[in-house]
Amino acid sequence: MPASPFHLGWFFSKGFGPKAWRHPWAGSAVDRFAKPDMAVDLARSMERAGFDYLMLEDSSNVPYTYQGSHDAYLRHSVDTPKLDPTVLAPFLTAATERLGIVVTCSTTEYHPFMLARKMNALDHVSDGRIGWNVVTGSNDGGAQNYGREKQYPHDERYDMADEFMEVAHRLWDSWEADAMVLDLDRGIFADGSKVHPIDFEGKYFKSRGPLSAPRSPQGSPVICQAGGSGRGRRFAAQWAETIIAMAATRRR
Ligand SMILES: Cc1cc2nc3c(=O)[nH]c(=O)nc-3n(C[C@H](O)[C@H](O)[C@H](O)COP(=O)(O)O)c2cc1C
Predict the structure, then answer these.
(1) Pairing mode of beta strands 9-12, 53-56
(2) For residue 26, which of 20, 48, 52, 121 is within the disulfide window of CB 3.0 to 4.6 Å?
(3) CA distance 38 to 88
(4) Atom 3 in ligand 1: which residue has the minimum CA distance?
(5) Which H helix or E strand runs over 200?
């Protein structure tokens, strides 16, 4: 009987930042966390081991809830600091040949146009090896960095994310695959009849389009999701191509 194929992904917990401050096995190069080398080394190893993708976790605030202060988090490097994973991603794709790199970005921290454009560029430079872990934001500290007092209510975050995905996909589809002509003899760079404004106007977002760059190799990034609630799983079922979940605890 032929072996059935299966897929492997690796969750790069704590994102682009220090991994294990003062753990016995963490080594002494304590000042290298803001450089890509450790992640590059890991990505090469994952590729050699046959993994499909490496997923970069992210959150975007310095936590401050314990004793109302950020001091303990910073003193012990608990979930902080974290650099932008979309900056790390191209280093990893440049150092590998087949491995997919999935970056985490929140639908409450980007405008869909900005996110669609960033993913499109990452997909171009990586020759189609980019994925997006779609998160909706989780703590109020993160929301406060973007000018809001609190996160939007849980289920509404997913409603917004639904609309976000619709805008993003329309932008990714706004250039037909053969819109780029690149014909030096006829003097035609791109065919305007194959590039379409989207004129999107929804409840939460508005965007004229088209995207400001041609269709990327995959068209859109591979969509990854980890919603655990009923609403989150509905969202994942609608949009995701790969779903990550907590392993259930086995009862004895
Ligand atoms: C393996 C795994 C990885 C996750 N990575 C992130 C992450 O990088 N950033 C983030 O804000 N949330 C992350 N989450 C949280 C999920 O996006 C989601 O908010 C959480 O699973 C709760 O889902 P729910 O709101 O539908 O209950 C992760 C969840 C899991 C299970």
Answers:
(1) parallel
(2) 20
(3) 11
(4) 226
(5) strand 200-201
Stretch (H or E) spanning 93:
helix 85-94
Q: Of 13-22, 81-90, 146-155, which gets the smallest average pLDDT? A: 13-22
Evaluated on CA atoms 86, 119, 10, 251, the torsion sign reads positive
Domain boundaries, given as residue ranges, for the chain: 9-243
CATH superfamily of 9-243: Luciferase-like domain (3.20.20.30)
Over residues 117-161, the pLDDT tens digits come to 999 999 999 999 999 999 999 799 999 999 999 999 999 999 999
CA pair distance 100, 93, nearest whole angstrom: 8
Both tokens of 187, joined, read: 């003097």
Residues touching ligand 1 (Cβ under 6 Å) are: 11, 57-59, 104, 133, 135, 138, 154, 226-229, 232, 244-246
Query: What CA–CA distance (Å, rounded) separates 185 from 188?
Result: 8
What pLDDT, on a 0 to 100 scale, did the predictor assign at position 250? 59
**Residue of minimum CA distance from atom 13 in ligand 1:** 135
Strand order across the beta sheet in which 100-106 lies: 9-12, 53-56, 100-106, 130-135, 222-225, 242-243
The pTM assigned to this predicted structure is 0.95
- Dist. CA 135 → ligand 1 center (Å): 6
Q: Ligand 1, residues 135, 162, 244, 246: which to mutate, most atoms within 8 A of Cβ?
A: 135
